[in-house]
């Protein structure tokens, strides 16, 4: 959704109605997660994807239909082995989509939401999926304000409280309420879609490998910062456009930088005077991934220095070193792929083994 919002914001500002399809539930080996979106706008322009190609043709027609009718629809697509030509997911999974028309009259908060996402201001959009409330009704919730309504004051109050809780976690999912926000009822189903700022990737050590890691980090959707104490190496022209470059001692920069459970920290400094103080700081703060480059001999020496610095075994167990998966990588770009692969595998609970050698779901639901 974040990637297609610039186009949606433009259509909305121009007053052009469009149909927006959003994945609101998945089961088994579905290819996209809740929140993935596709839209059909003026001139039948299509942006985004909800299944990687399996059902996009049917969704295209649905989006056109809801624009014409002005009414939202909830549709489920799954695999059909009875009719090889039936619309469905060949991967065997199932996805449920909310397809709704978007205009200034139907969704007066959409423009403000698009602007907030572009500015990195956290916002959660609550949308009615089913029940006595109007399907497709939306409520936009920020930390300090709300806009729109789901139909009743009680429902708005209950959903606002939950939306702010989801926003703090950057979480997306469904909630159930009574018609007036009753917590123990499930007459109304609401989809909470949170837009938190992009997660951060902090790359330390402005070497050729750092440029490649920064490039793939930006590709994966991270807000990337490269830090090095040496100004001759830490120059913006050596890194992709949009990557922040900071000249400062790495551990001092990290001390004044906020991290959370989504932050990725890649230590490529390859020098004890830089990476040991940096890792002492990194391993004591929240982060999704902390990896350090170096040979096995460098790793053993680094671990001894970190133990001498007072880190315990639980803290040291968080360190992924030598960094990356065993892909046989040689070039900076190949090493960057191996690092990215390890980050993705750790995030979703993947084994790193070839899929051809594994069984079960390709897209695990439990990271």
From TrEMBL:
Domain XdhC Rossmann: 201-343
Full protein name: XdhC family protein
Organism (species): Streptomyces liliiviolaceus
Highest taxon of source: Bacteria
Gene3D superfamilies: NAD(P)-binding Rossmann-like Domain (3.40.50.720)
InterPro entries the UniProt entry points to: MoCofactor_Util/Proc, XdhC_CoxI, XdhC_Rossmann_dom
Organism ancestry: Bacteria, Bacillati, Actinomycetota, Actinomycetes, Kitasatosporales
Domain XdhC- CoxI: 11-78, 117-178
């Amino acid at each position: 959704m974040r990637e297609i919002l610039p186009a949606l914001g433009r259509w909305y500002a121009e007053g052009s109605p469009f149909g927006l399809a959003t994945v609101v539930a998945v089961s088994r080996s579905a290819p996209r997660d809740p929140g993935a979106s596709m839209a059909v706008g003026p001139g039948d322009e299509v942006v985004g994807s909800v299944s990687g190609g399996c059902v996009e043709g049917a969704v295209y027609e649905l989006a056109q239909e809801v624009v014409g009718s002005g009414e939202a629809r909830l549709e489920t697509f799954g695999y059909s082995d009875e009719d090889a030509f039936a619309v469905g997911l060949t991967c065997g999974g199932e996805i449920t989509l909310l397809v709704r028309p978007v205009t200034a009259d139907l969704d007066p908060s959409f423009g403000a939401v698009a602007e907030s996402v572009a500015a990195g201001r956290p916002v959660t959009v609550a949308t009615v999926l089913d029940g006595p409330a109007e399907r497709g009704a939306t409520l936009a919730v920020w930390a300090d304000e709300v806009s729109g309504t789901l139909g009743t004051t009680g429902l708005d109050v209950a959903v606002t409280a939950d939306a702010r809780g989801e926003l703090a976690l950057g979480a997306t999912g469904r909630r159930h309420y009574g018609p007036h926000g009753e917590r123990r009822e499930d007459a109304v189903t609401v989809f909470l879609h949170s837009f938190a700022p992009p997660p951060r990737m902090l790359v330390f050590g402005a070497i050729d490998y750092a440029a490649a890691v920064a490039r793939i980090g930006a590709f994966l959707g991270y807000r990337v910062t490269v830090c090095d104490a040496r100004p001759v190496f830490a120059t913006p022209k050596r890194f992709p456009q949009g990557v922040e470059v900071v000249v400062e001692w790495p551990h001092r920069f990290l001390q004044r930088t906020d991290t959370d459970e989504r932050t990725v920290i890649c230590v490529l400094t390859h020098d004890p005077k830089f990476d040991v103080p940096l890792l002492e700081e990194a391993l004591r703060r929240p982060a999704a991934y902390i990896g350090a480059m170096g040979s096995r001999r460098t790793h053993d020496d680094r671990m001894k220095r970190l133990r001498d610095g007072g880190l315990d075994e639980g803290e040291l167990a968080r360190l992924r070193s030598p960094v990356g998966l065993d892909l046989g990588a040689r070039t900076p770009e190949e090493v960057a792929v191996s690092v990215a692969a390890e980050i993705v595998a750790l995030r979703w609970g993947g084994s790193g083994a070839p899929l051809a050698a594994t069984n079960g779901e390709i897209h695990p639901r439990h990271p």
